[in-house]
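Quick one, T. Sequence first:
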Amino acid sequence: MDISIEELKKVHAKKTKASIIDAEEMRIIIPVLLREIVSLEKKLSESEKYIAILEAKKPKLTREGESGKAQWKIKYCDKKNRLYIKLKGVFNSKSAKSASNTVIAFLSHTQKQFDVINDISELEAVTDLKVLFHLKKVGFSLKQFGVGRSVRILNEENKIIPKLFEKGLDEFNNIVTNADSLEEAEKLLDNNEKFLKL
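Structure tokens:
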């Protein structure tokens, strides 16, 4: 008996239960359906292996660097469409240029309306006002690539650094808010309504 899965769908898809008339047909159909399920499970398993291979071949979406007393770590999470920027230490124009170029290089991986978490809680100082130029360069690039919301993680004791970032970045970003920790920043971005009320 030649059985078509498509024909079975047409005949039985809307039925909630088989009638006594269908019993003989069901006896023949069940092994066919089981074979189809086994075949689909095998294809799914092969697809998952292929996806894992593709995931492994994706470019690394984390970069770290340092120059003098400055350190930076840039990471992009494609699942959340979120860019993480962490700056530590003391920045001059040279280190700011390197860090800003790293951020801009990552923007090609982002999708429209990507979020940014900018952790400057361990940024101690800047030694050169040219750093402001590199901040503005990043801010302009973020806007060009369609940045959505931004959260800045601050050190409450350092009053100068936040003001510098306000001058350099805020004019280009849609919505900027502050947080005390990475966990708080993540929660703000994961909860749209709460973010918008701030």
